[in-house]
Amino acid sequence: HVQLVESGGGSVQAGESLRLSCVVSGYRYSTYCMGWFRQVPGNEREPLASIDSDGRTSVADSVKGRFTISQDGAKNTLYLHMNNLKPEDTAMYYCAAEAGRRMCLAFSIIHTNSRGQGTQVTVS
């Protein structure tokens, strides 16, 4: 049973940076996809970035140039580095993980129920 726990959210001013962390435990995937998405109440999940077990990363066009994704395998931790934050980045941010690299195709990972409880980011 995979468990994901996000942290690092908060309230910041426009232009500032945040790094979100997601500790992933309980998985035994030989191949996997992990990713980040965000959601505002009443809206659909918006993909942000993904990384697969080969280390290939993808970043959504909407945040490309400002957000990057990385992972620390030794710590089983996934990161989302967010720079030059804007008020429109205000949302709940979630990490997700699934078996299989194919889940990174077209950010399919955002549709999984294997996600954390989220961390709120507010930009003013």
Order of helices and strands: EEEEEEEEEE
N→C terminal distance: 37 Å
In helices, the fraction of residues equals: under 10%
**Looking at the structure, what is the overall shape?**
globular
Class by alpha and beta content: mainly beta
Uncertain segments are: none
Count of extended strands? 10
Write a concise keyword list for the protein shown above.
single chain, about 120 residues, mainly beta, six-stranded mixed sheet, 10 strands, about 50% strand, globular
Written overview of the protein:
With 124 residues, this protein is mainly beta. It is built from no helices and 10 strands. The protein has strands spanning 3-7, 10-12, 18-25, 32-39, 46-52, 57-59, 67-72, 77-82, 91-99, 119-123. The chain has a 6-stranded mixed sheet, with no helix packed on it. A 4-stranded antiparallel sheet has the order 1-3-8-7, with no helix packed on it. A hairpin with a 6-residue loop joins strand 4 and strand 5.
